[in-house]
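User: tokens in, sequence out, please.
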């Protein structure tokens, strides 16, 4: 009797253990299901940086391991930039929200990150440091995307970008946008 029960019940248990996201393959990068899980197929783009009609187009992602898919990229000075940022993680926004903040060349990233940690009500964008921000996305939860457009600084150099959610920059969510003379 016990063997018969095991042979009948175990296959039913294992049948229910499939990939929970496999039936959501029709979703796009811009939506997520009711449980907040990232839809199947939302992955890092194959070519995250391209130039289309003179605009540098960047497709950046952030994940639950606190990493961006891009650690660096280059843009011409004074040129238009279009960034689409997607949180490809699965953890809730309150625990693992992500954004991208581009800082001016003279900004102190550590000081910015420290001030950002105290700016919870402003989605971790500290008002006192607004003059040190070139551009930033919204703070995003799992499966959410935000597209921003801005003009690259005129001055060639290295401009840091980071996630301003507390401790994410220190965990490795940072990179460099290099601005080169055209």
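Assistant: Sequence out:
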């Amino acid at each position: 009797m016990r063997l018969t029960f095991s042979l009948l019940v175990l296959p039913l248990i294992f049948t229910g253990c499939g990939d929970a996201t496999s039936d959501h393959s029709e979703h796009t990068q811009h939506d997520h299901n009711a449980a907040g899980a990232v839809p199947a197929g939302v992955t890092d783009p194959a070519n995250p940086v391209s130039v289309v009609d003179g605009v540098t187009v960047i497709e950046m992602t952030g994940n639950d391991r606190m990493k961006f898919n891009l650690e660096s990229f280059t843009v011409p000075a004074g040129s238009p930039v279009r960034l689409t940022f997607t949180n490809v993680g699965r953890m809730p926004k309150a625990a693992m929200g992500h954004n991208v903040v581009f800082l001016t060349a003279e900004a102190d990233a550590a000081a910015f990150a420290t001030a950002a940690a105290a700016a919870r009500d402003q989605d971790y964008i500290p008002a006192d440091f607004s003059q040190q921000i070139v551009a930033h996305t919204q703070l995003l939860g799992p499966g959410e995307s935000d597209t921003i457009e801005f003009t690259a600084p005129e001055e060639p150099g290295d401009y840091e970008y980071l996630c301003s959610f507390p401790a994410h920059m220190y965990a490795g969510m940072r990179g460099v946008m290099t601005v080169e003379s055209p």
